[in-house]
Amino acid sequence: MLLIVYHVSLMFNSRTFLLKAPDSSAVFDLIHLWTHPWRMSLLFIISGTVTGILLTRQSPDALRSARTRQLLVPLLLGLLFLIPPQIYVWLNAGLDVNVSFYDVFWHYATWTPILLPNGELAQLAGMQHLWYLAYLWIYTALLTLAVSVRPQLLVHAGDRLASWLTGKWLLILPVTLFVLLRLVLRPAFPPTTNMLGDWYSHAVYIVCFFIGAAMATRDDYWDAVVDMRKPALAVASACALVLALLFVVMPAAEPEKWRLLVGRALGGTFQWCAIVAVLGYAKIWCKGENAVIRYLNRAILTYYVLHQTVMLLIAYALDQLGLMSASLFIPIVVATLAICALLYELKCHLEASCKAVFSARFA
User: Fold this and answer.
1) What is the pLDDT of residue 221?
2) Is 296 inside any structural domain?
3) Helix/strand/coil (H/E/C) assignment for every residue in the chain
4) Rg of the chain's alpha carbons, rounded to an integer?
5) Low-confidence ranges of the chain (pLDDT < 50)
């Protein structure tokens, strides 16, 4: 849900995006500063945790096959049907290229570049928000292959990590790693959605995914997370406040080197401490499933795959009517959620109808 809020905010903050509102505001930069450092890392930890649990119940080959169906099918369908509308919005609203959707789809499907107003040629390609599905499938495939070769890999790794991630070291060691990655690797390989060159992102997300998988079933680890939730929340809150002061209250077109270094150190600290705080308090407050969690567990992949295309089409329609403004931030978020919910229910209805027809025909 935060991902939807974050992506909608990109149309109104100071960052580059496919479509921008005419009245951007630094207030929306706070959404980026306060959610982006930890949100996707947390998602890969959750994904790793689920993978680790499932590997105790089924073989690595069975899990890899299931994940291939669950991740690559939506990825391929999304690349074919959901990315071209985003490119269409980007070209027409973001770059003022007067091009039809048919032409966009043709250039996209045939891998032919399109001429931009400045005379440059643009290759219409990219995974946009769907990169997560590709990255998660790769990490799952690598882990399941490794476990096939070494069945006790996660057990041994969990034993070693459990001896390190105890007490205050649960915060200190990962924070040190994430800060070092931001200081050393991120400047050389800034985050992109180019899978073959996104080395900083791979380093962060593989670490998170592997920690989740190795510690998935270890009660001592989760007890340590619960014990450190309060100091983690305190540190994360302090980092969030200082980051806001550095980059929103005192903005600069080209931030000084010292500000970038301090921001990266605070970002790495905030990244891990926020994750521990979220997991720790979730462990306390969420004792079991309820109707909302069960629904979201089923629906969230559909929401994830659809949301960015839906929100951009809503924003593009408003932009064409001359209505696009920062005051529509919350309505666009709500409309995106509502349309995703409607499309998910339609998907479930179609699946149920197809199953009923199939059962009746072959009964």
Assistant:
1) 94
2) no
3) CHHHHHHHHCCCCCCCCCCCCCCCCHHHHHHHHHHHHHHHHHHHHHHHHHHHHHCCCCCHHHHHHHHHHHHHHHHHHHHHHCHHHHHHHHHHHHCCCCCCHHHHHHHHHCCCCEECCCCCEECCCCCHHHHHHHHHHHHHHHHHHHHHHCCCHHHHHHHHHHHHCCCCHHHHHHHHHHHHHHHHHHHHCCCCCCCCCCHHHHHHHHHHHHHHHHCCCCHHHHHHHHHCHHHHHHHHHHHHHHHHHHHHHCCCCCCCHHHHHHHHHHHHHHHHHHHHHHHHHHHHHCCCCCHHHHHHHHHHHHHHHHHHHHHHHHHHHHHHCCCCCHHHHHHHHHHHHHHHHHHHHHHHHHHHHHHHHHHHHHC
4) 22
5) none
232 found inside a domain: yes
Nearest CA to 265 among 228, 238, 230, 226?
A: 238
CB 84 within 8 A of CB 101: yes
Domain-embedded: residue 306: no
Domain that holds residue 86: 30-290
Give how many domains the chain has, as a whole number. 1
Any domain includes 196: yes
Cβ contact 165:174 at 8 Å: yes
Per-residue pLDDT tens digits for 233-250: 999 999 999 999 888 776
Threshold 0.85, pTM exceeds: yes
